[in-house]
Design a protein that fits this description.
2 domains; Rossmann fold; alpha/beta; elongated; 10 helices; about 260 residues
């Protein structure tokens, strides 16, 4: 999602983004604070020395995202996640890994895992991800089946991500809508009359390279997936897919899937 386009659509009641930092050293957290001061959106970074202290803050403050050390003891992590899920505003819980080995830690209950930033540019990336989690992303669902569009809309609506969803029946309609509106990503059926999914994808990426496109298909042909990826698809979904599949795609698009900077 383009941060600039998100800011243009930002509602007046979005005063600030609240981030809870419970990882690394005071220097690591100060790096995150410095990055927060460089954004056009007011971002408050609230520090805590432990997962237990952070859990107590959840009741007093409306936290949007919480960064916890990936080496947090499992019992402490589980207690914090339980408190986060019970909070009035349920924050995204993101583990911060200082070493590549920690990416393999049992972190399934958390919303994502990222590499610890070592430079201000990397800290800025994390701050921008938090802002994007707070701002609504515009999604276009493109499928010639009204039933399928309804299913995808329902699955997207059921996620924790803030989404504004529109629909298109086929490729030409999708291109017209993208031309007249600012969409962040597109869920695009492969098998459609007129322009097929890969043809529509290629045209979207040619005109709007920052739009993320997810190809959907019932075909069990790996060559289709390869063509879609070669044309610039951000992800590939095989029908039928389920809430967990949609969640995995969105986590990847929002940068919450485990990855290192290198």
């Amino acid at each position: 999602m383009s941060l600039a386009s998100g800011l243009e659509r930002m509602s007046n009641d979005l005063v600030s983004v609240q981030i809870l930092a419970v990882f690394g050293s005071p220097r690591d957290r100060e790096l995150l604070r410095q990055a927060a001061n460089m954004t056009p959106v007011p971002v408050d970074v609230i520090e805590a020395e432990s997962a237990h202290a952070a859990s107590n803050l959840l009741a007093a403050k409306e936290i949007d995202a919480a960064f916890l050390d990936a080496s947090t003891p499992p019992a402490d992590l589980e207690a914090f996640i339980s408190a986060a899920r019970a909070a009035r505003r349920k924050p995204f819980v993101i583990l911060v890994a200082a070493a590549a080995a920690e990416f393999k830690a049992g972190s399934g209950a958390a919303d994502g895992i990222v590499a610890k930033p070592d430079r201000i540019e990397q800290a800025q990336v994390l701050i921008e991800r938090c802002i994007k989690l707070r701002l609504p992303s515009r999604v276009l669902v493109v499928d010639d089946s009204a039933t399928m569009r309804s299913i995808v809309r329902k699955l997207l609506t059921g996620t924790r991500f803030p989404l504004e969803i529109a629909e298109a029946q086929e490729g030409i309609d999708a291109l017209k809508q993208i031309a007249s509106g600012k969409f962040d990503f597109v869920f695009l059926d492969y098998n459609m009359p007129g322009l097929n999914g890969v043809e529509t994808l290629s045209e979207i990426k040619r005109q709007y390279p920052r739009v993320q496109v997810v190809i959907m298909t019932s075909l069990r042909d790996e060559a289709v997936a390869q063509r879609a990826r070669a044309a610039g698809a951000a992800a590939f979904l095989k029908k039928p897919f389920y809430p967990a599949d949609i969640e995995a795609v969105l986590h990847s698009i929002y940068g919450l899937r485990a990855s290192a900077w290198y």
